Amino acid sequence: MSVVSVEKDYDSLSLILVAEFDAPIERVWQLWADPRQLERWWGPPTYPATVEKHDLVAGGEVTYLMTGPGGETSRGWWRVTSVDPPSSLEFADGFANQDGTPNADMPTIAVQMRLTEHDGGTRMELRFSFDSDEHMELLERRGTLDVIPQSVGQIDALLAADMKT
Amino acid sequence: VLTYNRMVVGGLADEDVDRLFHALADGTRRDILDRCIRGEPSVSRLADVYPMSFAAVQKHVAVLERAGLVTKERRGREQLVHTDGDAVGRARRVLDELETAWRGRVERMADLLAQVPKNEPSTGHVR
């Protein structure tokens, strides 16, 4: 059993996920601290991640590249805000442009990760939140997905009507 | 003169269809709509983009608004223009996607932990 609880707050756009692992805390920490291990779980099998830069210190940066089934790539970065091995890590997780610079058009997620010893294993608590300004932007951007099929549907309907005249 | 079949046009009345066509018939308005789909520009920010007066941009926005394509919302001194949508529904999807992504990550972490580590990590930061 890994994930033990997920709490979502739709108003503040935050999520808390708690997982438990049957492994010592240092071992779990290494999943984050060792770039070769990080890239084995960060991306799904269809989008494996390659970690390029991995500077896990406050103010440091982690950058990665994900490669899709068709060879398409997307880039992301973390900006590390605090690190306390082996028990906590905080960072902002964001998207990057193809040249690796942060993509300001996409929202960033603040991630707080805590590891504690628990029942001979390790408990991992992850808290995610969206910056409030970016949160609004994100919601609008997500609106693209809603609005496009709707407008396309309208245009199709209009064209269909047009054909009948 | 075009006549439209109301039954086909998903319940839109003739005048609604006219407004929609009129709104989409102009390149500037299509561009404004596109910017509103991607973000939430203010009217003054839109006015900076086009070589036309604030009033002219405001008129274009009003045409889009009458066609039901965008909504204006006053926030502080700014008038923000956005496309309609269900914010709660979107928030739900955003968090659901985040949950799905991280459930997958946690699962892969557990799989890795179940494997015997082949060698000690060289770049760890355990002090």
Give a verbal description of the structure.
The complex is a heterodimer of chains A (165) and B (127). Helices cover 29% and strands 42% of the residues of chain A. In chain A, strand 1 (3-9) and strand 2 (14-21) form a beta hairpin. Chain A is built from three helices and eight strands; from the N terminus they run ββααββββββα. Chain A has an eight-stranded antiparallel beta sheet with strand order 1-2-8-7-6-5-4-3. Chain A has helices at residues 25-33, 35-41, 132-163, and strands spanning 3-9, 14-21, 49-54, 61-67, 73-84, 88-96, 109-118, 121-130. A two-stranded antiparallel ribbon of chain B has the order 1-2. By secondary structure, chain B is mainly alpha-helical. Chain B has helices at residues 14-24, 27-38, 43-49, 54-66, 87-114, and strands at 71-75, 78-82. At the A-B interface, strand 1, strand 2, helix 1, helix 2 and strand 8 of A face helix 1 and helix 5 of B.
Topology pattern of chain A, helix = H, strand = E? EEHHEEEEEEH
Q: List unreliable stretches of 5+ residues of chain B.
A: 1-11, 122-127
Distance between the termini of chain A: 63 Å
H/E element order of chain B: HHHHEEH
Keywords for this structure?
A: 165 residues, alpha+beta, 8-stranded antiparallel sheet, globular, B: 127 residues, 56% helix, disordered C terminus
Give a summary of the structure in a few sentences.
Chain A has 165 residues and is an alpha+beta fold. Chain A has helices at 25-33, 35-41, 132-163; strands at 3-9, 14-21, 49-54, 61-67, 73-84, 88-96, 109-118, 121-130.
Q: What's the arrangement of secondary structure elements?
A:
The complex is a heterodimer of chains A (165) and B (127).
Chain A: E1 3-9, E2 14-21, H1 25-33, H2 35-41, E3 49-54, E4 61-67, E5 73-84, E6 88-96, E7 109-118, E8 121-130, H3 132-163
Antiparallel strand pairs in A: 1-2, 2-8, 3-4, 4-5, 5-6, 6-7, 7-8
Helix pairs in contact in A: 1-2
Chain B: H1 14-24, H2 27-38, H3 43-49, H4 54-66, E1 71-75, E2 78-82, H5 87-114
Antiparallel strand pairs in B: 1-2
